[in-house]
Amino acid sequence: MAPITAPGQAAALFAELGPWQRALRAQFPIVTANPELAYLDSAATGQKPRAVLDAVQDQLTTAHANAGRGSYPWANASTALVAGVRDRIRTFLDDPEPERSAVHFTSGTTEGLRLVARDWLPELLTDGDEIVVPFADHEANLAPWLEAQRLLERQGVRIRVREMPYQDSSGDYDTAALARLVGPRTRFVAATHVHHVYGGNMNVHLVRQAVGPDVPICLDAAQSVGHLPVSVAELDVDFVAFSGHKALALPGSGAVWARQARGPELRPGGWRGSPNTTGIASLSAALDWLEAAGTERIGRWTVALAARLSDGLRRLDAYEILGCQRSLALDARVQQRCGIVTFRHRGIGASDLGFILFSHGFMVRTDGHCQAGAGERSSSVRVSLHVYNTPEEIDRLLAVLASLT
Prior knowledge:
Helix content is 40%, strand content 14%. It is of the alpha/beta class. Helix 7 (143-154) links the parallel strand 3 and strand 4 (160-163). It is globular.
């Protein structure tokens, strides 16, 4: 995503995309019904456009039945829905070989990553192999790999878990150090597309360059699918796990896409049970809506909003902004935050600041944000944005924050 290189460029972007954004914002009933509130917690869960709500209502009232369990018309419609959304996800992710890949529905990113860790990774590894995983990203992209290590050890297979290296203080991966870390026994790498605390695009294409063409990469895309374009053709990863509820669909929906090219095929073990057909219907509608809206424009909009916020915050001495310090200004020449800005007040605790902000109509996240053990030690305030947010909300937020300095 190209940086906003000057204040004038940001203003021009808001002017250019303003009518488009206002038309989309009007499609979110919970947003339009509460104009006095600013929802700034989309990294936790996204709000739902009318098209998604209508699709859920339609599925529940016209052809609601269990998929793959019957031959009558409603059951057939549910079965066709599930199969069709698998293909829809392949298209949405720009799958270069859809005839080869697999899509498995999950309750969200965490289950998707655990699916890879539990049902695919053990078949790949032998005694003495190594995997590289992030210790300062979301806990969901660390715990499953450590769980796999423990399960293998009980079977007499000992693997080494290496920590993904980070650049000092920026939160970005250190791909030069990663290239030095990878060796002949490196069998697998886990990575994150957009960091859920620092807001940075983690440059997964550079991770691929660092580890070489043969090592499978599993991508946590919870903060990118539905927020910006995601192309598995360009990223050259082997797994993409994401949550539907962060991509404007219902909670309890999600998927893991598997390339099926490096290593064994992903075949979920055990009895899978009934699919979440209503959640899958909502996911299909959400992907349709996002594609029509344009994920590239959504990404440009939220990057510009985040840059507006970080540029204002950097002028307030009372606040510490987490992540890369070279990307705060509107005219920064480096990659700016993908709709996520996390900060602390130097004198007010994060929880108290959250209560103060809500008293002014702002809903933000205030805690440790489920960051894994090598991450931040103190709680913070996270503002996370989507297409329904506006420059006026950012300016109002900055005015309140400035009054607390």
